[in-house]
Amino acid sequence: MTSHPYSKLPPYAYWRHAVAGVPAADVDPVVEPPFRFGAREKIATAGSCFAQHIGRYLVAGGCNYLVTEQPHPFLSEKAAQALNYGLYSARYGNVYTSRQLLQLFERAYGRFTPKENYWRDGAGAVIDPFRPQIQPGSFSCARELDVDRERHFAAVREAFETLDVFIFTLGLTEAWRSREDGAVFPLCPGVAGGEFSSASHEFINLGVDDVVADMSIFLERLRGVNPRAKVILTVSPVPLVATAERRHVMVSTLCSKAILRAACDIIERTCAQTAYFPSYEIVAGGFTGVDYFEADRRSVTREGVAHVMGIFERHFIRRNLMETALRKTRQALAAPSTPTDAISDAMRLMCDEEALERGAIPAITESADGGERDPSTDDAR
Hints:
Elements: H1 15-20, E1 42-47, H2 51-60, E2 64-65, H3 77-82, H4 98-108, E3 119-120, E4 126-127, H5 142-162, E5 165-170, E6 174-178, E7 184-185, E8 201-205, H6 208-225, E9 230-235, H7 249-270, E10 274-277, H8 279-284, H9 302-316, H10 321-334, H11 342-346, E11 365-366, E12 372-373
Parallel strand pairs: 1-2, 1-5, 5-9, 9-10
Antiparallel strand pairs: 3-4, 6-7, 6-8, 11-12
Helix pairs in contact: 4-5, 4-6, 6-7
């Protein structure tokens, strides 16, 4: 029998051995991560709402989850949760796109100040356009937002400069941005604050090259302030709530995820100390034979989250007697006085994107000259 490149590949290279012939719970698409981290190393997270699962599981597992933006001492635990403290390493809310992440870094370091820096609601309260749902009830005035934002940016800088590992979950390619200066918003203006205007705002849909460029610049910036930083990228398996493209939301979902997955592959191959973790493949691939989506076909079941995080822990968290002891000690010290279900806690998410179902995105159609037109500005007929 002749020898060829497929003659002696390991079992994980063959579908029959790695997927078809494996019990669902044992399907593990990770081979060999480029690095692992221990109980002492500080892990920060950001990204789409699915990223909240990762942070909560790290905390529950006794890892050193980095939170640099803490609630004020006089706030109760319940009030702090209502104000979205602790969802991520800093109080930036959901960071859905690569462009949003890069912009967060630039804003935190004073390299970019958007022109559209405040939104007001009907009662005169002030909303942060870049964290539109982070403060229930909005800010009472611009000065209150300015003070909170200064504190927030300091926490963002501390996170970037002191983390050992940064886990970023890419969720979307669709976004809305300012025509004036290119500022990108996590939600379309007018959905959770602000006013939409086709003269001021435009829809964009990032391609593979865009995502790779954004992330490459971000990684360069991050290592400029923290040379030792390791990065883990993953793609959220959660489908889009809505699409602003003129096509079915299912098609837009698969297109966005394909773009993000392809971009991550390029980044992992070209950027040092950067790994990819296949949470999207585990949940949305459907190859395990287990349905990991709830009845709404968006929310991931607790079994799906557990499968994802079990594989993550197996491959990325260093295991030895000392590391295990440190993690158990941290778990004991962090144990709440009232017992809770860690998995149930992990299933509660704050998701900005869900506001799209509560307020319609302005429909975009083509005008006679081929440009974009906002029907809401048309004369009544």
